[in-house]
Amino acid sequence: MADGNESAFAYKDTASTRAHIGVPTGRLKSRRIAIVGLGGTGAYVLDLVARTPVAKIDLWDGDVLQQHNVFRYPGAAPIETLQATPTKVGYLAGVYQAMRRHIVPHAEMITADNAHLLRDFDYVFACVDRADARRLRAARTLQH
Question: pTM for this structure?
């Protein structure tokens, strides 16, 4: 994870300076983010969060990347990538690691057995389409 001096970005963030938002974005530097579910919604959440200086982004999804996913993602994936059947989290981590550091893919679903792994995050984005998974996350939050 980033120390106090290392930027989360692979190259200089000139956008924050140009928009005069350096102070507010600076408040995000120590934050740890988890994104659970990397379908269409989760991919767009990642696209936005990856452009902030958060210290770490963990991605959780056990599915492989399929054609219907890339139609809902920002950008475009080459057909060769789809044919290689990477995991969603592996593919997206690779795409965004060109821009920033400390993206950690977890090619597994969050279940009752491993939901405790989300306790130490500052923010958890539950981008899942199954109501049972959303309820599980909400229940774990209330216990924290």
Answer: 0.86
